[in-house]
């Protein structure tokens, strides 16, 4: 989650200004799903204290869903 731009995911411990966008993150997860080569997925660093209105946690769930085959784009 740290790779995402803080405007997309504020609830991380190490925000990276200029990180990837919502669309880029979902596209990457969909490409991983399409490859059918994913063996494991580790979603790390969602800090509920820093999160605003649970936005980062909701995005994390969406990214996992995309990695498992759900299409949003």
Task: Give descriptors for this structure.
0% strand; single chain; globular; 73 residues; mainly alpha
Textual characterization of the structure:
- With 73 residues, the chain is mainly alpha-helical.
- 37% of the residues lie in helices and 0% in strands.
Mean pLDDT: 93
Helix content range of the residues, please?
Answer: 25-40%
SSE-based structural type? mainly alpha
Poorly predicted tracts of residues: none
- What is the number of helical segments per DSSP (H or I, 4+ residues)? 2
What is the succession of H and E elements?
HH
User: Quick one: overall form?
Assistant: globular
Estimate what percentage of residues fall within beta strands: under 5%
Radius of gyration: 12 Å
- End-to-end CA span: 19 Å
Set down the secondary structure blueprint.
Layout: H1 22-35, H2 55-67
Helix pairs in contact: 1-2
